[in-house]
Automatic annotation (TrEMBL):
<dbReference type="GO" id="GO:0042744">
    <property type="term" value="P:hydrogen peroxide catabolic process"/>
</dbReference>
<dbReference type="GO" id="GO:0020037">
    <property type="term" value="F:heme binding"/>
</dbReference>
<keyword id="KW-0349">Heme</keyword>
<dbReference type="InterPro" id="IPR010582">
    <property type="entry name" value="Catalase_immune_responsive"/>
</dbReference>
<dbReference type="Pfam" id="PF00199">
    <property type="entry name" value="Catalase"/>
</dbReference>
<dbReference type="InterPro" id="IPR020835">
    <property type="entry name" value="Catalase_sf"/>
</dbReference>
<feature type="domain" description="Catalase core">
    <location>
        <begin position="9"/>
        <end position="393"/>
    </location>
</feature>
<feature type="active site">
    <location>
        <position position="129"/>
    </location>
</feature>
<dbReference type="InterPro" id="IPR024711">
    <property type="entry name" value="Catalase_clade1/3"/>
</dbReference>
<dbReference type="GO" id="GO:0004096">
    <property type="term" value="F:catalase activity"/>
</dbReference>
<comment type="similarity">
    <text>Belongs to the catalase family.</text>
</comment>
<keyword id="KW-0376">Hydrogen peroxide</keyword>
<dbReference type="GO" id="GO:0005737">
    <property type="term" value="C:cytoplasm"/>
</dbReference>
<feature type="region of interest" description="Disordered">
    <location>
        <begin position="1"/>
        <end position="24"/>
    </location>
</feature>
<dbReference type="Pfam" id="PF06628">
    <property type="entry name" value="Catalase-rel"/>
</dbReference>
<feature type="active site">
    <location>
        <position position="56"/>
    </location>
</feature>
<dbReference type="InterPro" id="IPR011614">
    <property type="entry name" value="Catalase_core"/>
</dbReference>
């Protein structure tokens, strides 16, 4: 009698029966080499793990939609924004930054907030964090920074000494460190935090005018954070708390939402604005560039297979669309190169053919061959350009205006030169905006973390970092020094005279 049940088959489609018992020479004899199914199962099992991401290894993701609610056509010609009410499918991956794939997702760490919009002009990857700034502003320092967040090459343990040594030697990190050491460093899952494009990007409108832009995703669930103690407790109780929280909410129909808002700066303002608008360690004050409503992002579909969708998702700031472009933000420029390179290493040269990364609209180019080419490889069409045989044309309407920065190209500029070296005003302002309890939590988290500094350079590292806290706000510096049980009179002798 025929049934609709699926037959058990090999990957090549051959039905087989014995999936639990190996073929042997007698009931107790050795296994025969000809048991192909045994070899298939073991060989595939040995290859189930792909290299984990160097950063953002532990993550969660879901599909959803972006719906336009406000007209911003005067700033950008991007088709994703061209009609109020228009919906665009997307995939969003949240992550921790420094931990391995098996680490707890409630660690004190920034959170990745990476979105892939599937637009008719190609996939747009907006790859940011839950913070508007970052620890460094030059990509040459990125590998060094991440090494300090990973494991000590001698002990193979996390090291507060490495972390604070680097931060104390790089005062531009202070703004992000202040955020990280607040309760914003331990968000209550992924649904209750904001997201940011972080970098400065550009908009280009139908008149070929350029604007500088920053992206803000404001959670509609309300901000909610763990205290340091609560986060520590959750790491032991459920290291996958954020993953479970997101998955369960969507399964239950409680779809999380974020409101997309933007800050827009006219191109000419960048030349005279008192803050370098392309410095990733700085924010644009909202009083100067207010938030403008754009639309709503909703997550409403859990992937049916974690590996296929979340683990193989590949986001790159290089992937922009017409009407959205880059800026001279040095960190953004570095990520334009490094992210696609990381994906080619981890997933292969054809990673954009994987379904979660594949553009759902027409793709026409001359990229061919390589491992795992599964899209027909262009068939019999030419693999060179220009040619006399196909009908692919260059559409000049997508051309962008050139940049003009009025300075020579090809030199090395000190990232912290005069005019670029105020690392203290914004973190100090952030501290002064906090209420009493938030200040108390921040100080306790700083003291707890800095108490882990050890070794022969301990005093030097502690005092160097204390100088930064004092420069940001003298009360903050005094409170940290007191929490570390330092001799305040002796400490003040080593502090900068300007505080």
């Amino acid at each position: 009698m025929e049934t609709n049940k699926k037959k058990l088959t090999t990957a090549s489609g051959k039905p087989y029966v014995e999936n639990e018992n190996s073929m042997t020479a007698g009931p107790r004899g050795p296994i025969l080499l000809q048991d192909f199914i045994l070899h298939e199962k073991m060989a595939h099992f040995n290859r189930e793990r792909i290299p984990e991401r160097v950063v953002h290894a532990k993550g969660s993701g879901a599909y959803g939609t972006f719906t336009v609610t406000h007209d911003i056509s005067k700033y950008t010609r991007a088709k994703i924004f061209n009609t109020i009410g228009k919906q665009t499918k997307l995939f969003l991956r949240f992550s921790t930054v420094g931990g391995e794939k098996g680490s707890a997702d409630t660690e004190r760490d920034p959170r990745g907030f990476a979105i892939k919009f599937y637009t008719e002009d190609g996939n747009w990857d907006l790859v940011g964090n839950n913070t508007p700034v970052f620890f460094i502003k030059d990509p040459k320092k990125f590998g060094d920074f991440i090494h300090t967040q990973k494991r000590d090459p001698y002990t193979n343990c996390k090291s507060a000494t490495m972390v604070w040594d680097f931060w104390s030697l790089n005062p531009e990190s202070l703004h992000q460190v202040t955020i990280l050491m607040s309760d914003r460093g331990t968000p209550y899952g992924y649904r209750h935090m904001d997201g940011f494009g972080s970098h400065t990007f550009s908009f280009i409108n139908a008149g070929n005018e350029r604007f500088w832009v920053k992206f803000h995703f404001k959670t509609q669930q309300g901000i909610k954070n763990f205290t340091d103690a609560e986060a520590g407790e959750m790491r032991g109780k459920n290291p996958d708390f954020a993953q479970h929280d997101l998955l369960t909410a969507i399964d239950n129909g409680d779809f999380p939402k974020w409101t997309l808002k933007i800050q827009v700066m006219p191109e000419a303002d960048a030349k005279t604005y008192h803050i370098n608008p392309f410095d990733l360690t700085k924010v644009w004050p909202h009083a100067d560039y207010p938030l403008i409503d754009v639309g709503v992002l909703e997550l409403n579909e859990n992937p049916d297979n974690y590996f296929a969708h979340v683990e193989q998702a590949a986001f790159a700031p290089a992937h922009v669309i017409d009407g959205v472009g880059y800026s001279p933000d040095k960190m953004l420029q570095g990520r334009i190169l490094s992210y696609p390179d990381a994906h080619r290493y981890r997933l292969g040269g054809n990673y954009e053919q994987i379904p979660v990364n594949k553009c759902p609209y027409l793709v026409s180019n001359y990229q061919r061959d390589g491992q795992m080419t599964v899209n027909g490889n262009g068939g019999s069409s030419p693999n060179y350009f220009p040619n006399s045989f196909d009908d692919i044309e260059v559409d000049q309407s997508y051309k962008e205006p050139a940049w003009d920065f009025g300075s020579p190209v090809g030199d090395w500029y000190d990232r912290n030169a005069e005019g670029e070296n105020d690392h203290y005003t914004q973190p100090g302002d952030l501290y002064r905006l906090m209420d009493a309890q938030q200040k108390k939590d921040l100080i306790a988290n700083i003291v707890n973390s800095m108490s882990g500094i050890d070794g022969p350079k301990k005093d030097m590292i502690v005092n160097r970092q204390l100088c930064h806290w004092f420069r940001a706000d003298i009360n903050l510096g005094m409170a940290v020094a007191k929490g570390l049980e330092l001799d305040l009179a002796e400490t003040m002798k080593q502090m900068p005279q300007t505080v």
